[in-house]
């Protein structure tokens, strides 16, 4: 199976052909995938070199002229390093762009901590008006990329990952999907965490929701699920643990509930290792998730006994 990032350049190259508003801004990373598109559209495929602040600033300038810029590099260089430009050049000027990241939280361990960005979604949460897509399969990435580019002049972040589920689902860029139904709690699996969550919750009496668009957060979808499954909610996110717990609290503000946020821990792992070793070290493998989710659900059942 190809990866989400394998789909990125071909999909956006077709969008360049289809829509004269689309422009691509790169900072060296990913430029080879746009070699042919550069020949066809030399005025709308721009490589600024290894200058990430300029990457975002140039995109904002293009947006001010009426173009729809698609901006791409590793997440740590797209959100963290040029955060001031994301905040001011896009946010403060009220201009839109599609930021498309690669490498996710730790998809290239050999790159070290400089190339890891588990805090990217939490950082964007400090800003207003961002849509955040976290696809879990290349087919979903293609769907959400097209939706993001077509989203007028909105500010959109598309978080691509080397980790993926076995099959894509029909995502609409707005709502959570109900993948499994139960009566002892709700587990929200974000993007590439779905297959692992399904394995971890096999035999547990829980509802599993699948989220590929996390901002705006589908509060109505979560509330509907809790009507039959109860208000114990577990979030399993492929980035910083607890990133969406506030969104859960706001969605269920008027009802008693418990929330468990699982994801990447704050402790820096100072050995490169493999993706699988990082997943296990953060407790995001199926066995660890089953222990943590099962324990949380069992504790909830005990707490409601008369």
From TrEMBL:
Pfam families, per the entry: Transket_pyr, Transketolase_C
UniProt xrefs under InterPro entries: PDH/Transketolase (IPR051157), THDP-binding (IPR029061), Transketo_C/PFOR_II (IPR009014), Transketolase-like_Pyr-bd (IPR005475), Transketolase_C (IPR033248)
Domain Transketolase-like pyrimidine-binding: 2-167
Top-level lineage group: Bacteria
GO molecular function, one term: magnesium ion binding
Name of the featured protein: Transketolase
